[in-house]
Structure formats: structure tokens, C-alpha cells
Amino acid sequence: MCGIVGHLGPQNSVETVLEGLKRLEYRGYDSAGVSFVDEHNELCVFKKSGKLENLKRILEGKNLVARSCIGHTRWATHGEVNDTNSHPHSNDKIAMVHNGIIENATTLKRELIEKGIKFHSETDSEVFLALLSDQVSQDVPFKQAIINSFHRITGNSAFVILNSETSEIYAIKRGAPLVCGINETSSEGLVSSDPYALAGMVHKLYFPEDDVLCHLSAANKNLLNFYELDGTKTRRYMSKTPDISATASDKGDYDHFMLKEIHEQPELIRSLTQYYFAGEGESALQDVANLRPERVHISACGTAFYAGLMIKDFLEQYNQIPTVAEIASEFRYKNPLIKSGEMGLFVSQSGETADTLAAQELCTEKGLDTISIVNVEGSTLYRNCNHNLIIRAGVEIGVASTKAFTQQVLTGRLLSYALSGDLNNPERRVALASQFNLLAERVDYLLAQEEKIKAIAKEIYERKGYFYTGRGMYFPIALEGALKLKEIAYVHAEGYASGELKHGPIALIDSEMVNVAIVGPELYDKTVSNIQEIRARKGIILTIGPKGDTDLEEISDFYISLDFSDLGDLGPLYVNVVNQMLAYYIALYKGTDIDKPRNLAKSVTVE
Ligand code: F6R
What we know:
Largest sheet: 8 strands, antiparallel
Bound molecules: fructose -6-phosphate
CATH class of the largest domain: Alpha Beta
Distance between the termini: 11 Å
CATH superfamily of the largest domain: Aminohydrolase, N-terminal nucleophile (Ntn) domain
Strand order of the largest sheet: 3-2-4-1-10-9-11-14
Helix content: 25-40%
Shape: globular
Mean pLDDT: 94
Number of strands: 24
Low-confidence stretches: none
Radius of gyration: 25 Å
Number of helices: 19
């Protein structure tokens, strides 16, 4: 969603901010803008709807010397996509950018209009600028004016504000991501909504907690100070040495990040195995091993939720722990039956998904132990949970999640292993590590067969619709396969439990519909009967099934054979890589924007 970058320092601030915004492009946006104080101490604002390139074009040939600058990429929530609604919003002295939603914006705007304040945009964000301007016009000192304005708003937001009179930058947030960073060697201070924007630019990262005011100023001894809302200095932040490399944004020899990330999976599986079985991850498993939850509540969104469905199966099968998996946006508002003694488990790549964070907060309020299975260390979810298992997927740039899903499910399997009390059982340990390594090997082999999947994609990419079907642990994979296809290829696709199709959706089957039928070992005969039902209605059958099954191959129009009989409960992850590649190549033939599909954002920080 919206991206924020701010920079203060002797280096060229505008260039640094533009570089940061470029790195945030992957998150999805529709407009971009910057504001800085030029060498005549004038506040300059440039903003443009569309790609960052449009903004860069209007900056061309301008003298952009500045020692503080803030910038923004907008993903519209209030008001259409146009130049005026783009950020920064400004008056002659102050510029500000905003990430999130001001929920009481309409009430506040009415009040401010009655006071004679004029608005230029349709955004909720401008309300904060109006509150701040109003305070400053009453001679309230700048820092206090921000605090007073922040007190007035409700909802989850992060703001970064540039004061042109002092060239200082302030940042503050509640329930939205924010990170500051310092480069001591070059005396630069930065702030962003995503640590990835600061990769390679800073030596230390600081993640402020909610309601902490961050102040970047050349007048501060260490450039960066933190304040409570009562004005006193605070240490309510988490500091961390950055571990993301700036080169993660390199596609290498691949045409898309999505394809690169699909191909990274075997190595990531191996590295996860090493980390948790023979590395520093062992202590994280020990940390959760003694938990004895009466019940587990899994909450997540989208792909991460489907990973949660698989984890639910692990916890029920291997640990006999009753487990409920619920979409976070539903869980948070349904007054769920939860109580202390139970455990909240939250699955997320970004660790910043607003609904997942709210679900976590609810569990904490009710006294539950909370665990995250998360990619971004230091993210809000990571900081808010009592226990964390990181998935070590590296930076995921493609909007469609691929490698994170695989790592989430595997990490969930590790959680189940830790809870089973088997951590000190050498046989169990070796067996599970070998199973992980076998999966990596099989995915390697599969990736070498990419051409076959590409050829099938070419045959079916113009069809009307797609049903992905599976049973048991292959059902969440059917859901995930369909989600992947619809989000990047813009075609209608649905995931169904194989036995459920005849209870309605089978009415849609004709010679234009494809059934991607996943045939795992569970209920084999029943699943084959379901395929026959589709075939009888002239549906196109693409089966992903066991190697050497000639009968199954015969009743299918296309057959992708996999050797997954010995992979056990990790077989679904193997199949899922086929689905990832199928979605990728169908989208490629359709000519869509694979890494940045329309209307989507990488990290959904508003509800
Ligand atoms: C789909 C996808 C989304 C995310 C969902 C949750 O490919 O990426 O469905 O899985 O928005 O995001 P995180 O995992 O960051 O909480």
C-alpha cells in the first residue's frame, strides 16, 4: 500500500528519497510525490498520478539540491487517483505524507471548514495537515502541534511531516508501519514505512512503538530523538542492525520477480531446514515447545490464510489440538469465542496486514498467548506477539506471494513438531529434516521441467474459467492455486473441495471450463470419480497426479505427473509449485503486469 520515505542529511535528499520510493514500487501504488526545502529555503512540492517515472519526468532539469525531503507513493483509499489527491499535502510552511486511514476525517473536516479552513483534495490525509496548520497558526510549538493533532484523529495511520522553517522531519504512527534509520558515517537520518527502502543506506534501524514521536534534526546529537506524547524523551522503540541487502531488488536473469521467487524455493527450504534444525532457529523452537494451548486460533489473510489452513491440519493431526482457522477480517469483528489458556497464531509475510494485526491485538486483550509465523523480523506483528517463528523467505517483491507460502507452511510444520515434544528425539528430528530436504530436491527437479508447464499454459490460457479441486490437505492448495491465477492473470478461478463441485458449481462446466484436478493419495478413487463427472460434461481436465498412473493420464486432457508418494504431508507444497508456474505462464500469455497486478498492493495496511 502507500509508501513513505523521508531523508535528512548532507547528501542529496531528493535523490535518496526517489531511490527509496523506487524500492517501494513493488508494494503497489497509483501516484507519487516529493517535498523538500530548496537552497532558498523554499518549500517545494512535486506530485503526479501514475508511475514514479511520471514524477521523475516533471523533476527533470530542476535544481534539486536539498538536505531534507519527504516522499510518498499513494494507493488511493479516499478520493480518486489524480495529482491533487497525491501526497505530499502542504501549505507554505509544512508538507506531510500519510499512510493509513483517518476514520473520523469527515467529522473533523466539517469542524475545520466551519473554522474557515479550506481543503484542496478529497483525501482524509489533508485533515491532518489542516489540524496541524490550525495549531501552528495559534502559535503552538511545532512538536506540540503535531502531538495535539495526532490526539484528535482515530484509526490506524503513520504520518511524516516536514517543517520547512527548520528542515526537520517528524514521524508518528499508530497501528501502521514506520521505521527510522541512521547512517552515522554520513550523518544521514531516514524514515520509511518499509525497512526495505532503507536497505544499504543505514547502519541501524529503529522501529518506534505506537504513539512515539520521532524527530530527525541536524540539531540533535544523534540526528534522531524519540518522544512520548507528553513530550518526554523515550526509548520505546526496537533497534536492529539491518539484514536486508539492496540487491534483493535485482531480478537477475528472470523476466519477473515472481518467477525468480518461485525458483528461489529449493534453496530457501534448505536454508530454513538448516536454521531450525542446526542453527539459531533451534532456540525459537525451544521457546514454543513448552506451550500447551487448549485450543489454537489461526488468523490470517489471503495466501497466508491458506497456509494457516494447512497448519491447522498439522496441529490437529499431529498434536491433537483443536484448531480454528478464521480469516482475520472476520475474526476481529465476530466476537470470537476465545479465552486465556488458548493460543492465537498469526501467519503473515509482511507482518503489517491491518486485519491480522487487529486479530492479534484482540487475542492479547483476551489474555491469549500469541505466536507469529512471519517473514519480516521487526514488523509490527513480530513485535506484538509473545513468540515468533520467522519464515526466512527473504524479501518478496512479486505481489503474488509464492515463496512465502511455502516457507509459512513449513514453519507451521515445525511449530507442530516443537509442540509434539519431539525436539530432543534424534530419530524424529532426522526424519523431518530429511523430508524437508527431499521436498527441496523434488522442487528443484520440477523447476527443471518448466517448459512442460509452459506448454500446457499455452494450450489453456484462453479458456473461460478454471476450477481447482483437491481433497484433504490438497484442498487449501486448490484454493491457493485459484487465488494465484485470478490475481495475476485476471481470469475467473475458484478453488473447491473435489467432492463439493456437484453441489452447485458443476452447472458451470462446459467445454470452455478447465478443471485443474489435484489428485493426492487421500481418497484417490473418490477424487478420480469427481474427475469423471467433469469429463462427462466436457470440461477440460488438467490433472496433477502421481507418476506412472496411466489410467488417470488417459482420462485427462493434460497430465502433470509428480513423484510425491514419499513426501507425505509436504506433498501439497510440491503440487503448489506447479500451480505457481501454471499461473505465471497463463498470465505471461495473457500479457498482464505479473509483478504488479492491477488494483493489488503487496502489504494491505488498511482494513
Ligand atoms: C496473494 C497475497 C495476499 C497476501 C495477504 C496477506 O498472493 O499475497 O493474499 O497473502 O494480503 O498478506 P501478509 O502475508 O503480508 O499478511
